[in-house]
RNA sequence: GCGCCCGUAGCUCAGCGGAUAGAGCACCCGACUUCUAAUCGGAUGGCCGCAGGUUCGAAUCCUGCCGGGCGCGCCA
């Protein structure tokens, strides 16, 4: 019996009790869905609901009495072993072992499809993340968005959404000029410009450009700079894509800001807003009335020198996404950009859309790097940047992705390089991966011992305490996936996997799948193999949602 | 000054308004004739920043403080 089935049974019991006059409750007050949850304390059964507490006032009866009515009816439901009233009015439900155990087979037969839902079916989502400027390698912050964003995309797809992952490539504007001048300076052995970029990669890129364009340094300086700009951006872009690919992250669309300017999309977006009466001219500039939509002040979209302001690209980009048919544009930004939320949401509203619905902005807090337990200050200009490549080289893709994705993006996280470099088991990814490897190994041993799933499945034999606990965790997976997708919180999957791995390890410790040498193979072994393989299925599916590998051996 | 995020065990962090607030690490004690000990069992460790409010019930929601981080441009 799955939590969903139990929830339905509870709702039916409630409705029946109302119909029978056992509860004086307005049928309209019967909740459409009765939530069941796993009690923290195992002594409180497999599942629990607080529905009686919530309905007591409306029913005009003490909570425990309401719970009693439900308990009597629920106890009649096949598969339910006991329904107990506890505390102020909780209803604690214990399932028959066989009823809970059947899930093992359900999971194995569903395979990778177990946990997939249709919660977000029909939604067309454009998910934009990383979008690091092509003026340097992806640093640690961008790496966090790569890990979290890619995992979120996997989650959204697992819940039925149609997702396009997009990288907004800021290849337009003054920063690119600074980048070009930095390359130029490096090629001539000059120090980096005051407002430019430093670091070894600048010299590397400059050398690569001069190697590619042989007589470059003989050209007029302005032409040199233009070539460095064009070729440098191209090389940086290739390097970024390469790093992302090695990190296991690929985007469906790499969107170039430049194209918005060259295609006239920026002008069209501003013209649209002008038609809607959202812009005005003042002080020689063109302004957008964002303050009418909750922003602190109006924003300049075309500067008095005639150049489009940065936000104009965002206007055009947002409009472009909507015109491409996306219901929702979801953008992940670092905390240092949270000041944009107001104007971005106002822009969304100015177009006549619904902020928070058509446009969703996820703000992630920053990553603090530690070395020897001390904060490491990063500076792009000084070249003291820890890049995605540095991190991967130090700890590997799996550990890096897992470490960055297992915490809520609302929290700034500390990543201690020395800790991760040590490759110690401080990193929970090993704990989870090891559990998966163990399930695989158990499978191999079972096969060698002649334990075969297809010979028997008798869920009534899964009676050990650790089995009930493990099964309950497996049952929760679809709800975890759905909730993680809806809340855009991939870290929930990681935390769940750690919990599941722990329960598996405990079960492994007390329940053998393969008999000892002198023992015969029995149905209990065969049935446990189903449970082992069900756990393996969920661990693999969960790790996949995080973009982390599920090794067969470690 | 204004805005956003955070404040939970020694450390890093979980915790959809529910029961005795959890995990990993660190520290201490135990379990390797093992289906892989990268594991498991046990012990220790908490004014959930502070003060009010809402509620049958608050770490969770609201308000105000305190502390930390990050932002508040005709930069990109």
Automatic annotation (TrEMBL):
Q: List, alphabetically, the InterPro entries matched.
A: aa-tRNA-synth_I_CS, Arg-tRNA-ligase, Arg-tRNA-synth_N, Arg-tRNA-synth_N_sf, ArgRS_core, DALR_anticod-bd, Rossmann-like_a/b/a_fold, tRNAsynth_Ia_anticodon-bd
State the span of motif ('HIGH' region). Answer: 132-142
User: Catalytic activity annotated for this protein?
Assistant: tRNA(Arg) + L-arginine + ATP = L-arginyl-tRNA(Arg) + AMP + diphosphate
Which coarse location class describes where this protein primarily resides? cytoplasm
Q: Name one Pfam family in it.
A: Arg_tRNA_synt_N
Limits of the DALR anticodon binding domain: 432-554
Q: What is its EC number?
A: 6.1.1.19
The record's listing under PANTHER family reads: ARGININE--TRNA LIGASE, CYTOPLASMIC, ARGINYL-TRNA SYNTHETASE
Q: Which family does it belong to?
A: Belongs to the class-I aminoacyl-tRNA synthetase family.
Q: What is this protein called?
A: Arginine--tRNA ligase
Source organism (scientific name): Kineococcus glutinatus
User: Which gene is the coding source of this polypeptide chain?
Assistant: argS
């Amino acid at each position: 019996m799955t939590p969903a089935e139990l929830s339905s049974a509870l709702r039916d019991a409630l409705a029946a009790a109302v119909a029978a006059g056992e509860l004086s409750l307005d049928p309209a007050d019967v909740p459409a869905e009765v939530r069941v949850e796993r009690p923290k304390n195992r002594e409180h059964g497999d599942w629990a609901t607080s529905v009686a507490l919530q309905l007591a006032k409306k029913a005009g009866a003490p909570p425990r009495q309401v719970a009693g009515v439900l308990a009597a009816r629920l106890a009649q439901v096949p598969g339910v072993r006991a329904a107990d009233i506890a505390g102020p009015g909780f209803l604690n439900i214990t399932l028959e072992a066989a009823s809970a155990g059947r899930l093992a087979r359900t999971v194995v037969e569903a395979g990778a499809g177990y946990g997939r839902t249709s919660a977000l079916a029909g939604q067309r989502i454009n998910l934009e993340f990383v979008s690091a400027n092509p003026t340097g390698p992806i640093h640690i912050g961008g790496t966090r968005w790569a890990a979290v964003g890619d995992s979120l995309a996997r989650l959204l797809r697992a819940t039925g959404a149609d997702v396009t992952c997009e990288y907004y490539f800021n290849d337009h504007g003054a920063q690119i000029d600074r980048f070009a001048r930095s390359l130029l300076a490096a090629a001539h052995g000059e120090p980096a410009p005051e407002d430019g970029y430093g670091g070894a990669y600048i010299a590397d890129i400059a050398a690569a450009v001069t190697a590619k364009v042989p007589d470059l340094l003989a050209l007029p300086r302005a032409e040199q700079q233009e070539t460095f700009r064009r070729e440098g951006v191209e090389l940086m872009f290739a390097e970024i894509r390469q790093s992302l690919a090695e990190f296991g992250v690929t985007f469906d669309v790499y969107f170039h800001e430049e194209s918005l300017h060259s295609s006239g999309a920026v002008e069209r977006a501003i013209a649209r807003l002008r038609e809607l009466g959202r812009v005005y001219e003042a002080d020689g500039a063109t302004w957008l009335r964002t303050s009418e939509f909750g922003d602190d002040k109006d924003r300049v979209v075309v500067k008095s020198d005639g150049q489009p302001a940065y936000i104009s690209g965002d206007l055009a980009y947002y409009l472009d996404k909507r015109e491409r048919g996306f219901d929702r544009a979801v953008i992940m930004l670092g905390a240092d950009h949270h000041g944009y939320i107001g104007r971005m949401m106002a822009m969304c509203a100015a177009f006549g859309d619904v902020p928070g619905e058509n446009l969703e902005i996820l703000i992630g807090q920053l990553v603090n790097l530690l070395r020897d337990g001390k904060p490491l200050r990063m500076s792009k200009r000084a070249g003291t940047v820890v890049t995605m490549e540095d991190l991967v080289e130090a700890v590997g893709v799996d550990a890096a992705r897992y470490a960055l994705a297992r915490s809520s993006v609302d929290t700034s996280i500390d990543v201690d390089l020395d800790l991760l470099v040590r490759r110690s088991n401080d990193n929970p990814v090993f704990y989870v991966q090891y559990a998966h490897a163990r399930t695989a190994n158990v499978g191999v041993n079972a096969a060698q011992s002649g334990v075969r799933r297809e010979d028997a499945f008798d869920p009534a034999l899964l009676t050990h305490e650790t089995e009930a606990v493990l099964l309950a965790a497996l049952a929760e997976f679809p709800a975890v996936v759905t909730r993680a997708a809806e809340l855009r919180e991939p870290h929930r999957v990681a935390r769940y996997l750690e919990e599941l791995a722990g329960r598996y390890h405990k079960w492994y410790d007390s329940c053998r799948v393969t008999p000892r040498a002198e023992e015969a193979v029995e149905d209990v072994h065969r049935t446990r193999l189903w449970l082992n393989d069900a756990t393996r299925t969920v661990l693999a599916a969960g790790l996949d949602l995080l973009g982390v590998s599920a090794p067969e051996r470690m």
